[in-house]
Amino acid sequence: METMSNVAIITGAGSGFGLGLAKELTDRGWVVYATDRDSVALEKTREFGAIARRMDVTNRSDVDAVVKEAIADHGRIDLMVANAGYGNFSSVEETTPEEVRRIFEVNVFGVENSIRAVLPQMRKQKSGRIIMTTSVVGHVSLVGLGWYAATKHAVKAIANALRQETRWLGIRVSTVEPGTSKTGFGAVAFGLLESGRAVGDYDRVMAGLNKWLGGLYRISPGPQKTIKKMVKAATARRPRAHYPVSWDVRALKLVFYVMPRSWLDGFVLWLAKH
Do 140 and 162 meet the contact criterion of CB atoms below 8 Å apart? Predict the structure, then answer.
């Protein structure tokens, strides 16, 4: 049965950006499948009328089941928001192989599962939008953020290629690039930076970075600015390729692309000494 309402699937909708976007779109009359691996967290989405479904983005069968349900019940999928993410913040060496695999499973292969599941239907209907949540560290990598930044660089590259491949098919692809933001994800991330180190040699440089990033986090906005950008990406007549959210995203992008790498490295060393 085909519905007249727009139909969206949002991953990582149990909290933060995904939860806020699910509410905004539901309030605008969209049919929203709010998905998360935490079924308890999804209870909040039922309160405002979203269709809550437990879904682990690393499990392709989970993703396919939700997509098939949406198509069977509504005949179309207008939007996929690949928002589910996992942060692990420590030095490159201290991150265990298991943690590296986990962060790539969620942040990269979870995105892959999400877009592969919806593309056949979007190609068939010759329309649709895909939004991927990246990050300022999709442009710049810093101490303690190496593996996380690697996943966000990968997602940015996937989005750029997919946008070029599918635009002529009527499919629009955008990224939303949050900076530091007061969400549960951010609180966990900076808590991990403050946790004990396995290799003491990194204590000094990690402490300096944590002090600087922690300061940014304390003055950072809540999730609303990012949610507003996501709504724009979902509803704009001509969506942009990239939606940087806040001043720190623009500033760090400028620094990374303009400043010599030796200056950036020197800044990190300065942080370690202060």
Answer: no
Q: By CB neighbour count within 10 A (0-12 exposed, 13-18 middle, 19+ buried), where does 241 fall?
A: middle
257-266: long-range contacts, CB 8 A cutoff, minimum separation 24: 257/139
Architecture of the domain defined by 7-273: 3-Layer(aba) Sandwich (3.40)
Domain boundaries, the chain: 7-273
Alpha helices in the chain (DSSP H): 16-27, 43-47, 60-74, 97-104, 110-125, 146-166, 184-194, 203-219, 224-235, 247-258, 261-273
Single-letter residue type at 124: K
Report helix angle 97-104 to 146-166, nearest 10. 30
Indicate the pTM of the whole model. Answer: 0.88
Find the range with the poorest average confidence among 6-20, 36-50, 69-83, 215-229: 215-229
Q: Catalytic amino acids? A: 148, 152
pLDDT of 59-117, one tens digit each? 999 999 999 999 999 999 999 999 999 887 788 998 899 999 999 999 999 999 999 99
